[in-house]
């Protein structure tokens, strides 16, 4: 059975995984986790606010004997559309509470102020030297560039720092894991040996890094430090936002850390040929497990690849292995010669 198969799939006593559809080709579904308590339901993440997702969530809760109005709380791992927007909409309708990491407030601030989300991201593409795909990228993302502020309202509670959250009789460790976004949180249920990992630790893919409306200095450095932080927790069963349940959080964290160290080596090798923008370096690297060239990607995914490569190059700068210069072409990186 594929992990995207609709239903309410048990992962522990009183906890179910509900995959909800996404309107995109790359990621087909997002896992929402339903936790039963004596006062109602707590959901980890909410899905994308589209009718197909709402209908399936309603049907899946019905299989468990619940209604949307039984939802009391949403613990949202981060403020991306496929995790946050449906939580915000449904919570407003049924009187549930939404909690989100404080580090994502900057993103919500931007979305509350502007109707041109895509325009903000285009500036990031230009900084990566991806001028060739800007027009294509805007065409691809144009339908989503207008912000529906009803889907991006502020949460009821901002999560800040590592702390404990009581969910009925359960105790969850809320662990701040910046990197994929600055406000990302994972939730560890040590008693049942579970890690609600959001997009921080995914079993078959790596989350995008460096593609936020409000850029930060070292997104990859933050992400890798957060992986080390999660590695220090007990080895837990991984409950990811995308993909099947994975048996060992330690095993997957180790794989992700090695993956990014290998990518850093490839980026350094690419700079050995001379100064280059992130877009140019990304064009020299293999992508996905099938090692595809970036040129085979559509404009949107070329943009993601360019920004992720920029995050790797910025970390090389922080480690003293490269230098950076802001030019008319964007940020140009050069290998440091020892």
Automatic annotation (TrEMBL):
Stretches assigned to coiled coil: none
Zinc listed as a keyword: no
Domain Metallo-beta-lactamase span(s) in chain numbering: 29-242
Pfam families the UniProt entry points to: Lactamase_B (PF00753)
InterPro entries in alphabetical order: Metallo-B-lactamas, RibonucZ/Hydroxyglut_hydro, Sec-metab_biosynth-thioest, WH-like_DNA-bd_sf
UniProt-recorded Gene Ontology molecular function terms: hydrolase activity
This protein's record includes keyword Translocase: no
Keywords: Hydrolase
Domain of life assignment: Bacteria
Protein name listed in UniProt: MBL fold metallo-hydrolase
Organism: Nocardioides gansuensis
